Amino acid sequence: MLEMSPEGFSLDGRPLRLLSGALHYFRTLPEQWPHRLRMLRAMGLNTVETYVPWNLHEPRPGAYDFDGIADLDAFLRASAEAGLHAIVRPSPYICAEWENGGLPWWLLADRNLRLRVADPRYLDRVDRWYDRLIPLIAAHQTTRGGNVLMVQIENEYGSFGTDSAYLQHLADGLRSRGIDVPLFTSDGPEDFFLTGGAAPGHLATVNFGSRATEAFGELRRFRPQDPAMCMEFWNGWFDHWGEKHTVRSPEDAAGALREILENDASVNLYMAHGGTNFGTWAGANTADPRTGEGYQPTITSYDYDAPIDERGAPTPKFWAFREVLAAYAEQPAPDPEPMPPLLAPARIELTESVPLFDVIGRLSTGTVHSPTPPSFEELGLAHGLVLYRTSIPGPRKAYPLTLEGLADRAHVFVDGVPAAVLERDSDERPEIAVDGPAARLELLVESMGRVNYGAAIGDRKGLSGVLHTQQYLHGWTAEPVPLGDGTPDGLPWGAAAASSGPAPAGADGVDGTSAPAAFHRGFLDVDEPADGYLALPGWTKGYVWVNGFCLGRYWDRGPQRTLYVPWPLLRPGRNEIAVLELDGHAGPFVEIRTEPDLG
């Protein structure tokens, strides 16, 4: 069992410096886990750390998923087979630039439920989740012959609150369900982080990207009895849509790592290998985490400028870290793993298409009538699109249209004609006049990631209200359209048109709406599966599927310009590439490239 003293850790009576790297099983495909874990060993690490995202494993209340990319049990077995210890961080909230910080979207359907505090309604849901999850983790503890050394109570709670009763409930719940290895918390090294987030009687660790000596000095001031550990050494960073790609030089990051180790501390590289925010799992931040203002959605790639890149290849940072870690490792690191082959460059014509509005009824989970626009959560929708419809009575002159609580982007149509594209935090108010007795108003609303950090946790999607001048519009219908794996399956594909015209009146419940959004399809033929990067020159915003698997979102505002295509998604022969372009600017081709373009 792992034991602790102010001098450090020991395992079974032998000193152990934890040289750990974060690798999230849910950001890589299961077929790639062994390769990525062996790459950690090749860098000189002896431990792997992973979060456990609640929302991935319980997509709907009481419906659990531990298969495929969600097979935590298989990942922990693979990490043991790779010769790595494991640190598991299963707290209900994980941050991680992950959708809603790992909290399930369906918690937000109850507007009275309070997140991350000792609210009985929230704790009841957490307890039920822990009943299912914690015994699985407990079976892999070192005390039972496994490789799990320690388990986190909650994540960076000092960045959020001070509810010590909540932290105690989580710690008690872990113990009562079989966790007997050390429990810990992780927070920033400032006084308010540590006083708000640490739990009495359990290890406190700190997260930072530089100035290790200063950070550990602050930790020792509050916790002189705890060994020094940086649970998140931020050696890179993540990106938001519309902002510059973040990089950190290998020399600077390696110098900061050396300073950590020179303080006789243990370390967890965040990230060792970042991976990909597949599907709709990318989260979001806000420019001001205190007020929740300034929405910043996270890109699909989670490369993180990590030492092992999104494809699993060693970077210059890998070699710089390997050199630093070699002085502290118990044995020499093995050679890096060989990489899988790359696809040859190719241009794929997307020759088939179907307008989105032609298939709204086919894809919708059902029409909902409401006096006010219901949120995505009230509609039972995790992510995707909702087509909201109502009418504006007339005749009346032009007045501004205001979309209250828009989360996060809306195409506005008046009598079937595109009127505007509005975004969250925008001050734009299109002027709309009604010449006849009424005008048909349609809003196609798309969600991006829910906020994963700060005061804006609990980010609801959709609309809260729509005003024409000062008057609320009522009498709404809503068509929820989930977007995820399998969405393009079974669509009535036809030859691609030069541009998407008006949908036929009455088609799938659509009354002649002219919409540019459409699905497009083409095929990639390969001899053998291989890695690649998909570029979408000339496209604007939307989603990509490969053989029905949702790679994620693309957006021409960057910085990301290519999407990583992992080899396990492909099969010998013909492979389907499907694109949903929401703004109507279809390529009409996509490209396979051999290098990523992250901006």
Automatic annotation (TrEMBL):
<comment type="similarity">
    <text>Belongs to the glycosyl hydrolase 35 family.</text>
</comment>
<dbReference type="Pfam" id="PF21467">
    <property type="entry name" value="BetaGal_gal-bd"/>
</dbReference>
<dbReference type="Pfam" id="PF01301">
    <property type="entry name" value="Glyco_hydro_35"/>
</dbReference>
<dbReference type="Pfam" id="PF21317">
    <property type="entry name" value="BetaGal_ABD_1"/>
</dbReference>
<keyword id="KW-0326">Glycosidase</keyword>
<protein>
    <submittedName>
        <fullName>Beta-galactosidase family protein</fullName>
    </submittedName>
</protein>
<feature type="domain" description="Beta-galactosidase galactose-binding">
    <location>
        <begin position="518"/>
        <end position="575"/>
    </location>
</feature>
<dbReference type="InterPro" id="IPR001944">
    <property type="entry name" value="Glycoside_Hdrlase_35"/>
</dbReference>
<dbReference type="InterPro" id="IPR017853">
    <property type="entry name" value="GH"/>
</dbReference>
<dbReference type="InterPro" id="IPR048913">
    <property type="entry name" value="BetaGal_gal-bd"/>
</dbReference>
<dbReference type="InterPro" id="IPR026283">
    <property type="entry name" value="B-gal_1-like"/>
</dbReference>
<dbReference type="InterPro" id="IPR008979">
    <property type="entry name" value="Galactose-bd-like_sf"/>
</dbReference>
<feature type="domain" description="Glycoside hydrolase 35 catalytic">
    <location>
        <begin position="9"/>
        <end position="327"/>
    </location>
</feature>
<feature type="domain" description="Beta-galactosidase 1-like first all-beta">
    <location>
        <begin position="373"/>
        <end position="481"/>
    </location>
</feature>
<feature type="region of interest" description="Disordered">
    <location>
        <begin position="484"/>
        <end position="510"/>
    </location>
</feature>
<dbReference type="InterPro" id="IPR048912">
    <property type="entry name" value="BetaGal1-like_ABD1"/>
</dbReference>
<keyword id="KW-0378">Hydrolase</keyword>
<dbReference type="InterPro" id="IPR031330">
    <property type="entry name" value="Gly_Hdrlase_35_cat"/>
</dbReference>
<feature type="compositionally biased region" description="Low complexity">
    <location>
        <begin position="494"/>
        <end position="510"/>
    </location>
</feature>
